[in-house]
Amino acid sequence: TAMQGLNPRERYIVAERKLKDDGRTLESLGEELGLSKERVRQLEAAAFAKMRRSLEQQSREVRHFLT
Description:
With 67 residues, this protein is an all-alpha fold. The chain has a single domain, classed as Arc Repressor Mutant, subunit A. The longest helix has 30 residues.
């Protein structure tokens, strides 16, 4: 899956922010991880970019297989 390409910290941030019913704030994650909320936002954005690239690559591979 796309999340497998993330490092543990990136996976944790994405899971805590987006995969829970009551997603955590950047500030609360920053406090827990010893980071600023801006740094957490940057890590989250980088994680989404990695996931997007992974999904695009998987899509190309599937299209190649089907043609």
